[in-house]
Every structure is written in structure tokens, then in C-alpha cells.
Amino acid sequence: MNARCTPAPSIVRFLRPRSIAIVGASPTPGALGAAVLQNLESAGYDGDIHLINPKRSEINGRPCLPSIEALPRDVDCAVLAIPHAAVLDAVRACAAQGVGGAIIFSAGFAEGGDDGRAEQAEIARIAHEHGMVIEGPNCLGFVNYLDAVPATFVLTKVERTGGKPGVAVVSQSGAMAAVLGVSLASHALTVSFSVSTGNEAVCGVEDYLEYVLEEPSVKVVTMIVEQFRQPTRFLALARRARALGKPIVLLHPGRSSAARDSAATHTGAMVGDYAAMRALVSRAGVILVDSLEELLDVTDIASRCGADFKTGCGVLTESGAFKALTLDLCEQVGLALTPINAAVNAGMRAVLPDFIPVSNPMDLTAQALVDPELYKRTLAVLLGDDSFGSVVLGLIMTDVATSTLKLPSVIAAIKELKPTKPVVFAALDEGAEVPRAFIDELRALGVPCFETAERAFRAVAHLSVPRPVDSAAAPRAAVPAVLAGLNGVVAEYRAKEALGALGIPLPKGRFARNVDEALAVAEAIGYPVVLKAQAADLPHKSDAGGVILNLADAQALKQGWQKLYDNIARARPGLVLDGVLVEAMGKRGLELIVGARQDKDWGPILLVGLGGVMAELLHDVRLLPAHASAQEIADEMLKLKCAPLLTGFRGDPPVDIEAAAQIVAKIGALMQSEPRITEIDVNPVVVYPQGEGAIALDALIYLD
């Protein structure tokens, strides 16, 4: 994809149609075709509307045509409000008439079994042959608020936005698109476009995202996606969104296996790896949330305040207990609170009564009830200090009288101070009666308003997390010659030869085919040594007794050689070893697990974590794209739950994180260069104290 994503003209024509045909138009209340017509007429759609119903001559005073074949040529959009059985023929007829695109409401295609999948495939073939856009099947249509085009059967009130910057909703789920529309409206947010993509027979979320990113009226894109059918394209578009300063807020069900199964059933598509998706889209700049509530809240703040938050939040509140609760909650959600510096302390002391201590969160007590100007004076201090990236006002509203006393002062402060950083208002008492006019005025001033402080903190936390710049460009490695012609499991000695060619540090040692060669290797590298059985069909050699440790001299080596072969004969009768890898016993250090795999959807993924039980029991690993730099890898390692073990714990010295990160980066470079590699397992990588490096003790490579 080019650096600039240019939407296909067909999408523009489809979403901003000058002519619409309703196939299955009906006067019957509740019928899909009736609802679409009602929406268009209520919105004052000023394009041409063509109604198709062979049983009627007119509807609402509009003439009806008997068939799609009777349409004029080159209608922009056809809404197929007809049963499943009639859809395929209707698509054929639309294609023959040069219709730009069609909306298919009916379900029962790819999500309905083999016959449905075959029908959907045929729809796709026809559309590709004729350059048609297809929305659906199994969708709710779209709403273009910019031009007042509600092409959906969900009764929708539409007012033209006049080009006012707003939110674009792109959702595979039609129901969730409708829910979001209502929720965004309740927050007084402008919506520019809302598209439900359904089964995505032809056009997927990526196609619509490509269009709305380039639409000047779109400020934020909010997405609900169960399955990305073009993951690499989505990542490129996410980077484009980041360059444009248009945040993408994404809800992606599928964290649990049950959710993944449900998504596959719903969309008729195989569902990819959630962990891989999460790692890659986050690095591409996407704001990934975990619930509908968070999706709405983050969208609200991003729409009013932008998404370029600096870290460090300041909190003004009116309760000592809530101050303590805030400290707990912010730690839980990962929201960093800015420490009070000398300048802020001095500024606060100058405007606060003596009995109020300076802190963050700041408990203003009930003083503002008698001194409403206190909000402005304290806000001014926080807004004027660069160490605060945002400010949350967590205030007690209680009743109309109290909120009427407090909020005008807050509003006046916002008007006078004209904040250039986000200010968020949250009521501490959910359900308190607050005059709507105050909330409307705050929102009009760019202040997001929440009924609970917890929702505000969670949303601000999502926007305050620093996101690395992911260029998707990194050096690739020359594919080691030893891998040529190999398939399946690559035994350790060959895998290490490949890794050694990349410059990855390995233990001293060599491959030996017999005991005499082993003795020669041991003599050259020095005792003590370890013997490791080698065969492509023996990936887990320790389980078969194929590893003999700490052999101190030639006699011990001879005995160890025999013991190894005896163990393999008992555990794996008939297995013929290639030979034995003889290596110097390494000194102890901190063990890491390092791996990589080719994800079928998202491409090569790196994994790094603490070895042993840390990875297995605590799932303490980090995932990164294969193109991640060594510095980015090192930064991710410091986010591990057990990162204190890396930086020095209970008197242990810090380990050489940089050396370990270099190993991971070199594996990533290899994964990018050789797509035949399905998996690399380097376990363990032993890391020594800072400045002493790291070494790969074991390695397996799997080739397709």
C-alpha cells in the first residue's frame, strides 16, 4: 500500500449516493423496505429514489418499477430489502444495470453453512467482475450524516452535520453500530458516518476505514470488529490514521475462546489470534478498549480533546476518602498521576487556605462551596504546568442547588482559562440531579462529562499511555544457508548454526557423530561439558533422557555418551540420532524464554518473557512485531510483571537487557526474511549481569 491511502471511487459513490433504489419497497409498517423509505423521506434525502415492487404501481405517491431491469442505468446504491432466496438474482440484475453498490440485509450466507458460503462467494465474484460495492450480507446498512442519507432499516433521526468534525463508526455488527449511534448521540457527539459491514462478502472494515480517514469531516474513527480479513492492510491504515492525527478506537471481542467461537459463528469467518492482534494494533497507534462503555468514553474524550495526551494527570476533588480511592483506581487502570513539583506546590500554596495540604489528587474539601473561585485558581496552577498532561475534576454534585452553586464557577473558569490540555469533568455521585444545561455547556467548551469518576479515569488512562511509533520498517537478515532444503523440525545443532550466522551468541561447542569426535570437541572447548542428543524427530530431548550435564573429564564423557544412547533407546525405540551436540557448561544467569511464530493473519510475531514457571504460570510474556527494534524490545521487557528481576532484585545486579534484546531483534529480522519459518523457540536465553551479555542455550526452528 502507498504511504497515502486513497479510497476507491466506488466507495465514495456508494456512501454518498445521488440515486438509491429500494428493492422490495413496501408501504407496510415494519417492513424493511418501508423503513428504508421512511428514513430517506424523513431525512429529506434530495437524490433520486427508485422503488421496486412488481405488485404495486406506487408507494407514498412515488411510482414503483416492476424489476431491477427497469431501473435507469448507473444507479449509485441499491438497498436489497428482500428475502435471502432472492438476493443472488438481484445482485446479478444490479450488476447488469451498472448499479454502483448494493446493501444486503438478509442473513444466512457464510454464517449459515456450505450452501450459504457458496452463495456469498458467487455474490463476491459478480461484484468483483463488475466493480460493485457490496455491504453485507447480514448487515444493517449505513447512515451518512454528512449528506443526510440513512440507508438502513433502523429508524434513524438524521440531521445534516454541515461538515462539522465528528465520529465515523465502522462496525461488523449492525446491532452494535445502532447501539453506538444512540450512545454517541446521548453524549452530544457528532457522527459523520455509520457503517455496518456484516459478513463482508466484498467490502470489509478496511475499505470503509480507508474512505473515512480521508474524509475531512471525520475526526475520530470508532470500530467494533470481530475479525480482520485484511490485517496487514488494517495496520497500514492505522499508521495512516496516526499520521493524520485521527485516532482509531477499537473494540475487538475475542479475548476468550468462547467469544472467538461466537465471532466465527456470527461473521462466517475464521477468527485469528487475539493476543497477536492486540500487540500489533496497539503498536500501530490504535486505542484498544475492553468494553462498549470504554469505547464510548474514549471516543467522547478523543472527539472533544484529541488523542495526543501527554502522560501525567492531575485530579481536583472534594473528598479525602475519594482521594485515597483515586490513588487505588489510577494504579489499577495504569493512569499516572503527576507528582507535585516545587513550582506547583508554590502556586497552590499561594491560592489555597492554609488548612488544605497540597497533593495530587488534591482534596479541596468543601471550601469551594464558600469560595467558588477556588476551582479557577487551582485549575490555573495545574493547567499552567507542563508536567500535567490532563486534569480530571471529580466533584460532588448532590442536588440541583449544589450543582448550581458549583458548576457555573467551573464553566466560568474554563471560559477564562481556555485550556490547551484536556480537562474532564466527573460527578462522584452517580444519579445526582444535575441540570442538563450545565453539562451541555461544558461539552460545548470541549470538556467531556461523566457520571462516574471511574469511567473518566479508565478513559483518560487509555489516552495517556505512550505509544511507540511503529514504522513497520526494520532490517532483514540474510537467510542462513543451512536452512536451504530443510523442512519440518530443524534439530538444535542446525538451528544453532543458523542463529550463529546471524551473530547470536551461543555456547562453545560442536556437533559430534561419534564418541571420538565428542572427545576431541571437549578437549578443544574445555571441561565440564554437556551432551545433547540431536535428531529432527526429537524436539524435546530432555523428556527422553537426551541431555547429560556436567561431564568433568574424558572418562565421564564416555560414560555419559553411552548413557545418552541407552536413554534414547528406551524412550524412543528405533529413533536414529544424527549425533550429539557437545557444548561447554555455561554459568548460571537469569533465564528468558524467546520465541517467534508466523501468525496466519498478522504475520511474524516475537515473544519474550521470563523463563521457567514465570512464563507458564503467570503468562508473563510480551508480544511484539518482528520488525521491532532492539530498543523497543528492551522497553517491552521492562513492562513484564517480573521486570524487577531484570533491573536488580534483593541485591542482585541488573542484567544485560540490551544484549538480550539484540538476540530477540535478530530473530525478528530472520522471521521477516524467511516466511517458511513457522516457529522459532529459543529457550532458554540466559542473561548475565549488565555488560556481560546474553547467550542462547537451546534452539529449535520449524520450517513449513
Q: Would you kindly provide a brief summary of this structure?
A:
The chain is of the alpha/beta class. It has four domains: 9-303, Succinyl-CoA synthetase domains (Rossmann fold); 309-464, Succinyl-CoA synthetase domains (Rossmann fold, 3-Layer(aba) Sandwich); 508-584, 2-Layer Sandwich (Dna Ligase, domain 1); 590-703, ATP-grasp fold, B domain (D-amino Acid Aminotransferase, Chain A, domain 1, 2-Layer Sandwich).
Descriptive notes:
The protein folds into four domains: 9-303, 3-Layer(aba) Sandwich (Rossmann fold), CATH 3.40.50; 309-464, Rossmann fold (3-Layer(aba) Sandwich); 508-584, ATP-grasp fold, A domain (Dna Ligase, domain 1); 590-703, D-amino Acid Aminotransferase, Chain A, domain 1, CATH 3.30.470. The chain has 704 residues and is of the alpha/beta class. The chain starts with 8 loop residues before the first helix and ends with a strand. α19 crosses α20 (554-571) and α22 packs across α24 (657-673). It is flat. It contains 24 helices and 30 strands. 39% of the residues lie in helices and 21% in strands. The longest helix has 18 residues, at 400-417. It has a seven-stranded mixed sheet, sandwiched between helices.
